[in-house]
Amino acid sequence: MSAVVLRRGPVSLRVERRTLVLVAAMALVVLVLGFLGLSYGATWADPAKVFAALTGSGGGSGVVIREWRLPRVLSCLVFGAALGVAGAIFQNVTRNPMGSPDVIGLDAGAYTGALVAITVLSGTSAQLTAGSLAGGVLAAAAVYLLSSGGGLSGLRLVVIGIAVNAVLTAMNSWIVLRAELEVAIAAVGWSAGSLNGVDWEDVRIPFAVIGVLLVLLVLRSPALHQDALGTALAVTTGVRVDRLRLHLVLIGVGCTATVTAVAGPIAFIALAAPQIGRRLARAPGVPLLPAALTGAVLLQGADLVAQMLLAPVALPVGVVSTAIGGCYLIWLLTKEVRRA
């Protein structure tokens, strides 16, 4: 399929026509799912009420839609995109479709940091964010150091990451078992990954942090695309590969830890979204924008299913994403074994 060149002043960008069509289609799906999310609740709101609420009117139902449902819908959009981008970053760095944050232990590390904030400190939002970020960074550093001996390879990093993930998961269980009953119940409920009860106060700072990280990623994306064509080619074109990958890992850890600090660990979105987006776009490497849009669609869809499946009881979205992602992981492992 032919390419389209987008120009604005001295800046030009060459994009495959299929990618443009895919982005437009995914954006439409995101809007439709978002509208369903705003309409669904204890009572259905018709389109007129939703539009009235978004324009600042609508009475009591308008307040419900703006203050309760809108933060949740936007959280699905932003957090899903952040997880999709984080997965694309790590799958590009490791050159492996299983190299996602939840498989190589970064989610578990962020959860460990958050557990320390909950059990040792008072568990405020700032402490959860700082704890999750510190835990994710330490887990990434451990995986990197343990897998860098004899030259860094994607397969070694994934295998070491799975082992680190197992260790951290066991440590998290031990922390929960040692905690007081009320704290343990809260920690276990939070670990399921849920967007229930998310409001504007919970998401303002995380949205800003993720926005900054995505801007930094856009600035590094040209070098990322060169690196995706091969390390030797990237080096010959002036890309400092080690520094680039360090920046990318920090951005990916930041996205994962920020989502974990608010909603808990939401599994498999970061694993599945980049590969689904790559197959839909039929692009080389793991493109970022299709991964972000696919992550947003997956998390929005999973959250709607979580709300509707046992209504009026809303399941944690992590339960649904884990059930769907488990099937995807089985298919992916089967395919990798046949390829080997």
Automatic annotation (TrEMBL):
<feature type="transmembrane region" description="Helical">
    <location>
        <begin position="154"/>
        <end position="175"/>
    </location>
</feature>
<dbReference type="InterPro" id="IPR037294">
    <property type="entry name" value="ABC_BtuC-like"/>
</dbReference>
<feature type="transmembrane region" description="Helical">
    <location>
        <begin position="205"/>
        <end position="224"/>
    </location>
</feature>
<keyword id="KW-1133">Transmembrane helix</keyword>
<feature type="transmembrane region" description="Helical">
    <location>
        <begin position="285"/>
        <end position="302"/>
    </location>
</feature>
<dbReference type="InterPro" id="IPR000522">
    <property type="entry name" value="ABC_transptr_permease_BtuC"/>
</dbReference>
<feature type="transmembrane region" description="Helical">
    <location>
        <begin position="244"/>
        <end position="273"/>
    </location>
</feature>
<keyword id="KW-0812">Transmembrane</keyword>
<feature type="transmembrane region" description="Helical">
    <location>
        <begin position="70"/>
        <end position="91"/>
    </location>
</feature>
<feature type="transmembrane region" description="Helical">
    <location>
        <begin position="20"/>
        <end position="42"/>
    </location>
</feature>
<keyword id="KW-0472">Membrane</keyword>
<comment type="similarity">
    <text>Belongs to the binding-protein-dependent transport system permease family. FecCD subfamily.</text>
</comment>
<feature type="transmembrane region" description="Helical">
    <location>
        <begin position="181"/>
        <end position="198"/>
    </location>
</feature>
<feature type="transmembrane region" description="Helical">
    <location>
        <begin position="308"/>
        <end position="333"/>
    </location>
</feature>
<protein>
    <submittedName>
        <fullName>Iron complex transport system permease protein</fullName>
    </submittedName>
</protein>
<feature type="transmembrane region" description="Helical">
    <location>
        <begin position="103"/>
        <end position="122"/>
    </location>
</feature>
<dbReference type="Pfam" id="PF01032">
    <property type="entry name" value="FecCD"/>
</dbReference>
<keyword id="KW-1003">Cell membrane</keyword>
<keyword id="KW-0813">Transport</keyword>
<feature type="transmembrane region" description="Helical">
    <location>
        <begin position="128"/>
        <end position="147"/>
    </location>
</feature>
